[in-house]
Amino acid sequence: MRQRKAVALVVSIFSVVVLLLAVRSQIPLSAAAPKITLLTHPVLYAAMGKETGVIAEFKKRTGIEVEVVTGPTEQIQEKALAEFVAGSGRLDVVNLIDTMYTSEMVQFLEPLEERFKAVDAGYAKDDLIGSLVESLRLGGRQMGIPFRVGTAMLYYRADLFQQKGLQPPKTWEEFMAAAKALTMDTNRDGKIDVYGVSVRGKPGFEAVTDFTSYVYAHGGLVLNKEHTRCALTEPLAVAGAKTFVEVYRKGYASPDMPAHARDDLIGNLQQGRATMGIMFSPYWGFLQDAKATPFVGKFGWALVPTSPGVPPGRTLNSLWSFAIDRKSKNKDAAWELVKWLSNRENQFEMALKYNNGPVRTSVYENAEYGKKFPLAKDWLKAIGASLTLPAHKNWFRMQDIISTEVIAALRGSKTPEAAMQEACEQMARPLR
To answer: Do 133 and 228 have their domain in common?
Structure first.
């Protein structure tokens, strides 16, 4: 009898332990912990803390294993579409950038609106920046959840502005005047050694990204709102193109601008070769790195200048989000990962520790975050006013066309007006 009681007690204790472990891990007793696959960009994975960051904590909390596959932007789109078309279900969660939400891609994604509506109060879905959530509502359905956003900001050498008696520019006329005044021969050898503006002109994504920042801030668009027609010949878009080209043609940017990429854009300010730059908001951290620049503490920030009637700070947003494969065999586990990486606590941790661009209002308004990033509330203002690149199945073809014409204008073989006209004529085919 005693032996039976002892056995019964052991069984009872074991059952309680199993139950507690199951509750803690949130995994059903009848099922083994699933394994899911996340396809993401290396920069985004770094913003998650890589192997020891928030994904490791997710596995510890839930028991769900996450295989992370990384690749550059173009490969993410190619790999995701290949797996989706094949119906393999191998990619459970995919990080997509704004231009990837084309009709071709969306047809393979799991609609998320019912899951999103059903999240508990602790997730605080209304804390997600509304314009970002809305941008992922396609055809009345929530097809993605925001993860990382950056906008364009004007970063500048505050000490040099002060020396010249200049204020941060709010209009494009003030911007061009400052660019001229801050293009200098500081050692008086007859050669310019400090340029007013740092800007990217490397053909492809780099040139088109910076060019679009200028176009949007002038009030223009690349495509019309329906994404059926090129809008680069509209007066406001042409005005943005002219400013972008004139910065280079008037000598306010380095002669090497047509070859300049991301590292040059940042490095020019870090090393004192330029005094202003319109750049991705998280790059502020590079200007505060004492190992990379001797000018820490001398940089300032401002919203990007805008044309009259254009909302202050309107420019280019870059948004990465999460989508779930419609053919995934682990949709519940995939959704848990999406919620985990977009919840309030982890968005704060990733922003503070790993320099992720947060998608929650509460992070920008958090005092600790504001202490590390005093420009946080201006970031939030710019994000709310700004636009993303257009999502179209042939965007990369159109990007190449725009790049070719912008470079032609920079080199002086075409006027900005003629370049925009040619770009629209060339884009008519991929827009069909």
So the answer is: no
